Please model this.
Amino acid sequence: MAQSMQAPSARSGNGLFSAALRNRGLAAIIVIFILALGLVNAISPAPMSYFDFHSLANGGAPLALAAVGQTIIVLSGGFDLSAGSTISLVNVIVASLPQDTLAGQVGVVLLGLLVGGLVGAFNGFFVAYFRLQSIVVTLSTMFLVHGVTLLIMPDPGGAVAPEITAFFSGSAITDVLPASVLVVAVALLAWLYLKGLRFGTALYAVGSDADAARSAGLSVPWTRFWAFTLGGLFYGAAGVFISAQTGSADPLVGDPILLQTFTAVVLGGTSLAGGRGGALGSVLGAYTLMVMVNILLSLDVSAYYSTVAEGIVLIVAAMAGALGSEAPLRRYLSSVGLRLKSRGAGFAASAATLKPAALRQMSAQDQGWNVSWLVRHADLVRIVLPAYLAFVIVVIATQVVYGGDTIFAWKYYDSLIVLGSFLAILALGQGTVILSGGLDLSIAWTIAFCGILAAGLINGSNLASVWVIPLVLVVGAAIGGLNGIGVAVLGLPPIVVTLAMNGILQGAALVFSDGTPAGFTSPGLRWLMTGKVLGITPVVVFVAIFVLAAIGLLGRTVFSRWVYALGNSPRASYLAGVNVRTTTIAVYVLSGVCSALVGILLTGFGGQASLGMGDTYLLPSIAVVIIGGTLITGGRGHYVGMLGGVLLLTALQTLLAGTTLPSASRDIIFGLVVLAAVLALRERSTG
Amino acid sequence: MNFWKSAALGLATAAVAALSVTSQAMAEKRHKIYLSMSYIGNDWQAEAANMLKAMAASKEYADKVDLKVQVAGPNAQKQIQQINAMVQAGAEAIIVYPISPTALNEAVKNACAKGVTIVAYDGVIEEPCAYNVHIDQAEWGKVTARWLADKLGGKGNIVMITGVSGTSVDTLRNKAAREVFAKYPDIKVVAEANGMWSQAVARTELAKIVATHSWDTLNGLWMQVGCYTANSMQLEAGVADDKVLPCAGEGSNGHRVQMLPKDTQAAGSNGTYKPLGAPSISASSQAYPGAYAFKIAMEVLAKKKVEKTTLLSPGAVTNDKVKLCQTGSWEEMKAGCNTFQPEIIPNPGWYASIFSPDLPQVGLNAALTGTPEE
Model:
C-alpha cells in the first residue's frame, strides 16, 4: 500500500538494467512468461509446433484483449466488474446478426466494438460525471448487461460467418503467423499510441493522485470517462474475437473471464491502486495464465490442485514484482532489527503507552453536549439514509405486488432477517476490511471450507458442535491471519493475497472432502436457523445481538479508530502512532471469523455443506458495504449503513423471487435499483 | 531476481527429470484418453468422474487405457486451451463435460481433423464430428410437468425452480414444462426463481418465495433440483408428513428416500432425511453418462460403428417404483432398486441415478469411490 511513487511515463532510462529495476513488475512477468513457455516446451513430448503456437496465441487472445481494457481502467484508479458481461453481450450481438456479405461482416465487427465502447461510456458517464464509485456502477452494469444479453439470446446459439473466423483466428501467414498475434499486437500498438497522447499522461496522473492532477490543470472527469470508454472498446474487441474463435455465441461465455482479467493485470505488474503499470504486462499475464493450463496438463497435476497452483503463481509473481530495497518485507525485517536493537538499548518507541490515550482524548471532543444528535450525525445520516429509503420503497412495492397482509405479518420480516443474517455477518468482516482500505476476495471459499469442515466434524452431534464451532472459528481466524500477514508483512496487494487464498482454500476443500462433502449439521444448529419459538426463528435474536456488537465494535473502540485512520491514510496513521501492521492483520482476522461463522450458519440452514456454498456471497458482501455508504477506498462508512444495504438487497431479492418475471428482466431491475441507490448516495459537495 | 530465476529453473529441471521417468514407464501401448471436466464443485460432477474412472479401471479396460483427468473450471476459454493441449499431448480420445455447446466447436473441429475422438457427456457439443451422450432434456421437462399436472388433477398454484439461465439444458427443460402447463388453464405458476441446480440455492430461493406466498396457498412444486430441500422446509415449517406438497424433480438420494413409504426401515435416517411417502416423481440427468462416454470412446477406438448421439432415458421413478437397495451392486440395481440407505450416503444431495443396463462394470462403489464391480 505504501509503495513508492514512481514517475511512470519517464522512459528515458540509462541502460536496460535500470529500466528493468524501474519496471520491476513488467520485468518479473517477462521472466515468468519465458520460464513458463520454456517449461512447457521442455516437458511436452513433442517440440512446440506451429499448431501449438497457433492454439496458444488464439486461446489467450480474448483474455489478453480484455486485460488491456481492464488495465486502462485500473490505471485511471477505477475498477470494472462489467468486463465479463460486456464480452458476452458483444458475443451474442455479433452472432445473431446477418453477415452474408463482406459489408455485413465488417459491419458486425465494428458494431461489436461500438457496443463495447457504449457500455464503457455508460460506466464512465456515471463514474466521471456523477462521481459514483466505479465498483458499484460496474456491478449494476454487470447485472443490466447480463439481463439484456439474456433477452437477446436466452441460450447458446447463433452463427458467425466463417470469413470472420478465418480472419481473426486463422493464420495471417500460413504456418508462420497466427492472425491472433497480429490482433493482440494491434491492440498493444493502440495502447502505446494512447499512452503517448495527452490522454496517456492524464491517465497516469489521475490514477496516481486525482487532486494533484486537477491542480495541474488536467480534467479528471474527462480522463475517467475516456478510460472507461476505451476499456469498454477493448472488451468489445475481446467479444468480437471470442465470436470469431468459437463461431457462435453463448450468453454466459464472458462471466468467468472477469476475475481472470484482474489476475492478468496483477501478474502484469500493474498496481490496483492506479497510476502504475501498463498493458504489455497484462497481455503477458494473460498468456501466462493460459500456458498454466498446458503446464498443469503436462505435469499431470491432480485436478484438485489446479486452483492452488494458480494461487501460488499469483503470489510468486506479485512478490517478484515487489522485490527491491523499498520492499515492505525488507523494510519489515529491518524494522524488527531496529526495534530489537532499541529495546536492548532501552529506548524503544513502543514502550510509550500514550498512543491509545491520545486517540481516546481526541474522540471525547466530538461528543459535544449541546449540539443536537442530528447535527452531530449529519454526515452519518446522509450516507446511511439512501439504503434505508430504498429499502422502505422496496417493502412498499412488495405490498403493492402481493397485497393481503404480506408486509404486516411478522413472517415476512422473520424471513428477511434469516436470509439477511449471512450478509449482515459478512458485512462486518468485509466492511471492516474495506474501511481499512483493503478488500477480501477469499470470502467464497473461506465460507465453503469452514462449512465443509464444520459439517464433517459435527456429523449430526450436538455434543460435537460444542468443540467444533470454536475450532472452525479459530480456523477462520487463522485463514484471515494469513491474509493479513500477506498484506501487512509481505506488503502484497490485498486483492492478490485474498484471491490466491481463495484458490488455495478451494483446493483444500476439495482435498478434505474428496469432491463430495460428507456429514451434516447438529440438531441444535438446525433449530437455530430453521426452528420457531413463538413464530420467531431463534437466529433472529442472535442477529440482533450481533448487530449491536458490530455497531459497538465499529463505533466505540480504539480498534475502530485505528481502522478508520488506516483507511484514510496509512502513512499519516503510522505517524500518528497507529500500529498499522497489527490493525491490518486484525481486520482480516475479523473477516475470516465472520466468513467461518457464515459457513457454520449456512450448514445449519441447509442441513449440509456443499462445495459451491460460498460462491453467491462474494459480490453481495461487497455490494451491501458500498450501498450502505462506505467508500471502497476506505476511511468512510458505518455498519448501520451496511445493514441498510443488507436489508435492501434481501428485500429486493425476496420481491423478485416471488414473481414470475423472466430472469433477464430480474437482472435488469436488480441492476437499476442498485444504480439508483448509489445515485442517491452521490456526493453533493462541489469539487 | 536471481534467486527466483534459479529457483524456477531448478523446478523446471526437476519436473523434466520426473516426467521422463514416468513416460518411460508407460512405454507399452495403451490408448491415451483424457477427461476434461468443467467444474468439480458438486456431487453430480464428482460421481460422474468417479464412474468414468471406475470404467477405466475395470477388468475389461484396465490394461488398455491410460486415463488422465483435468479440470477447466467454469471458463470456456480454458477448456478450449485444455482441449488443444490434450491434442498436443497425443490424446487419442478426449472425453469432455462441455462448458458450452457452441464455444468449443472450433477447438473440437481442430481435434477431429487431427484424428482425435471427442465424446461429450451430459452437455452437448454441436460440432458434428463430436459424439454426444446425454438425456433428452425436453423429455425430462415434459415427463415431470405431466406427472405434476396429473397429480394435481389439472388445477392449482405451483412454483417453478429453474436451473442456470442462459444454458441450453435450462431452456429446454423450462420450455417443455411450460408447454405442458399451458394445456391446463387452471394450473397457475405463481412464482419462479433460478435454483442454479444447487440444493443450497434452491433453499434460499424457496425461503424468499414463501416469505410472500405461504405453504398453504401452494399446491405443487416443479424443481430442476431441490425436492429434498422443499420437503424438508415444509416439515420444518410444521407441515404434517402426509401433507407435503407433490414435487416433480431430479434424482437426489434424499429426495428418493423421502419418497419411500413412511414405514420403510432406512438405516441412518436423520432429521428430514427419512422415508416420508412424499408424493413425487424423480427423473434424472443420470450420473453415468461420463462412464457411457468412456465406453463409446473405446468402441470408436476399436473401430466399431457408433451413432453420433446416444440419448439416455431420464428413468423416471415415481412412488410406486421407488425401492431401497441393500448393497447397491449392479446386479441388485438391475433387479429394480434405485435408492440407497442414508447410512451409506450421508449426503442427501448425492445423485441416486447411477444404474445403466449397458454398464455392468459400474455400481454404487464406482460412483462413491471410483472402484469397478468385481
Summary: Chain A has two domains: 61-259, 379-658+674-680.
